[in-house]
């Protein structure tokens, strides 16, 4: 589990298709929207915006879902 991530960190997470890798774009601490989906991030419950290596698409993930990739 990755608690403190920063922009540029390589991370991986589980999807229904298996593990996916990507790069942290930023730590989100306020509500935003990605692809029409609401990201309910707060300072007390932040999420990370990550860009997938495979698809190039961005998504928001909770810190508990991300693991630093080696």
UniProtKB/TrEMBL annotation:
Family matches, as InterPro entries: Hva1_TUDOR
Protein name: DUF2945 domain-containing protein
Biased composition (Basic and acidic residues): 1-13, 41-70
Stretches assigned to the Hypervirulence associated protein TUDOR domain: 8-66
Domain of life: Bacteria
Region annotation Disordered: where it falls in the sequence: 1-70
Pfam families: Hva1_TUDOR
